[in-house]
Batch of 2 targets.
Target 1
Amino acid sequence: AAGVIQSPRHLIKEKRETATLKCYPIPRHDTVYWYQQGPGQDPQFLISFYEKMQSDKGSIPDRFSAQQFSDYHSELNMSSLELGDSALYFCASNSRAEVGRSAQYFGPGTRLLVL
Amino acid sequence: KQEVTQIPAALSVPEGENLVLNCSFTDSAIYNLQWFRQDPGKGLTSLLLIQSSQREQTSGRLNASLDKSSGRSTLYIAASQPGDSATYLCAVSHSMNRDDKIIFGKGTRLHILP
């Protein structure tokens, strides 16, 4: 069965650079979630989208922005990168019709290292 | 604000023992509760999902229970094996405004001694 795809899997950037992380949800899933997991930390919710509209917002820095496209894939844009942005970024997807009945399906994550 | 707490933070047990990991949450308005496994530097593997209307789920040597009214869940691992060594994360899907963002606990680092 198709799973959530994230690209790239690994990314190395310098401070003050920008990065774009991509997420391709499971086919027919219309809702995408982004989570950030810092070293030794639990994953923290960043932002979610449903039908290309922002659905909920968590602890996402103003330097970050995200959007969902017509094919339901999502991109997380990170600017003015800081050392503290080094983390594992997870994307998850679900169908709004299944919210509460099924689990979010997580991608393998993108590991971002800021030097 | 929903908070998820896991006890203990770390646990070492000899191989073959049965063990229990504990999770508590402050707001009972949840859609479901999940237990995840995470190996160092790796992604999240979903182990068990319990809907808010259910009391337990079983998969192989794993059994998870949910007491929604008291805000508690346990993950029972039978006949532990060295391959079970990992961090186990408890997470609740919080039902607000039809969104189900997941709120994680900080995890229990489990080490099974050969």
Target 2
Amino acid sequence: GAGVSQSPSNKVTEKGKDVELRCDPISGHTALYWYRQSLGQGLEFLIYFQGNSAPDKSGLPSDRFSAERTGGSVSTLTIQRTQQEDSAVYLCASSLGLAGDVQYFGPGTRLLVL
Amino acid sequence: DQQVKQNSPSLSVQEGRISILNCDYTNSMFDYFLWYKKYPAEGPTFLISISSIKDKNEDGRFTVFLNKSAKHLSLHIVPSQPGDSAVYFCAACTSGTYKYIFGTGTRLKVLA
């Protein structure tokens, strides 16, 4: 079966523009995570979706960041009015949703804000 | 506050020798720990995990050790191979929370 896919793989945008990043999780996985990895940094948790529960948004760095998960499957991370410090690799992961379960990561979207 | 720390940003080891990657955590509520490996331009892939009820878990060349009193875990790779060259992340979570906290990673280079 297919793994986690993300699109686009690379995105270059101008400061102030909005961007949308897409994640297709593994079929049947109820949990979906977004992380950010800035240059030289570790994986920074952004947001977590589990089934129909309210998402855990505690990691979103500002109100310019938002995410949706439609139909319990595909997720979109939106960054409004992008800033240069938003430049990073954005990683999506999915899992079966059990505590301590292994997360399967996509290849990431490399965002560069000029 | 960095709850999961990997204090060595890089490590070089000769092929065939043991690689030891370390990870420290501060939150005593963490009860499940995982190691991921990441190659350039790819997402992290799961390597091995350990529950807090154990102090050791082994899978082939990979062994993870957990010292709860020291809040320390380590990943041993024996023997190291050039294909093991990658960035290794440790991650921790608390049962029922689903939120994983990742370390900053250690770049391992295995020299042929």
